[in-house]
What we know:
There is one protein chain. By secondary structure, this protein is an alpha/beta fold. The protein has 15 helices and 13 strands. It has two domains: 188 residues, Glycogen Phosphorylase B (Rossmann fold, 3-Layer(aba) Sandwich); 171 residues, 3-Layer(aba) Sandwich (Rossmann fold). The strands form two sheets. A seven-stranded parallel β-sheet has the order 3-2-1-4-5-6-7, sandwiched between helices. Helix 9 links the parallel strand 8 and strand 9. It is elongated. The model has no long low-confidence stretch (mean pLDDT 93).
Amino acid sequence: MKKKPRKIAYIVSAGxxxxxxxxxxxxxxxxxxxxxxxxxxxYKAGDVYTPKEFWVTYYISASKITxxxxxxxxxxxxxxxxxxxxxxxxxxxxxxxxxxSFYMKKNKIEQIHCHFGDHKLFVGYYCQKILGLPxxxxxxxxxxxxxxxxxxxxxALQSCNRVFVISQLAKDIITNRYGVSKKKVLxxxxxxxxxxxxxxxxxxxxxxxxxxxxxxxxxxxxxxKILRDIDIEFVIVGYGPLDVxxxxxxxxVGSKVVFFDKLDCKQLQFLYQNVxxxxxxxxxxxxQGREGIPVVLMEAMASGLPVVATNCGAxxxxxTTKIVEESSxxxxxxxxxxxxxxxxxxxxxxxxxxxxVKHDFSTINIERFLSNLLTK
Length: 376
């Protein structure tokens, strides 16, 4: 019979999203089947490292009508802890612990782990006293040098069943300065996945467009699906009503796509200079019409990028290298793959594209416009 995973409570702060390394750690543990729930001392939605929607997350919100009754009831039942909380100036930590403990008990939590030896640990300490559960903490660095409550830090450290530290220096400080038993202190270095963080880069395909159906994102992501086993990454920049991220997830290519919101010129220039191919997969749409001559094509071509585009509207007036039929993910994929497989071809067509822009779409056009505008 398969043993049930241990139920662990993670006490963290998500006031500006989780720390990236904490996010990765939780993501890994969840993927490994650990039954983990998050108890956030601070919480803010909308950050790139906000806990994922399907992660069980608790935090205090003024809009939750159950908050006050839980806290008041807990203060009555845990009255014995109030004198220590007042004496150590950690009453707010006790209040949070009372609220979190209510849900930890409800979820049958078996172990408490805190990230950082500051208020998260102090909250964990009181949760341990209320629930009688094992307590552990990961100590990083700043809490050893500028702790917000040094006295409470010493008390909570001694109460931990296990103390993880990320460096040998932290281990020495914990054992020598704070007198924590060496048996309880474990060096646990942080980590990165070197299959994701590597010196070589995949071939990158950039698309910059408003998030709407006429821009052909569904076809682009279907092409990405066709190419999912090739070392090609898609970079999508834009904003708008269409949920392009959802489409990528539904097609199973979410991990192959990097998304950016609306960017300024300098940011776009950086991307143009650091990708390999530009793709505009536009389609004719009954409500949104067809393409004119998109400025993003001029920008990409002026940056020396090879372009894969669909024959939509007037696109053929600027793109003369690789134009494919509308609504054809297979043709998009084939054209992208041809460029991905040949750096020489990318350079050759990129130079053609830059020459095309310099000849037909340079600043001379705005000078002519101004001259004609002012002509009586």
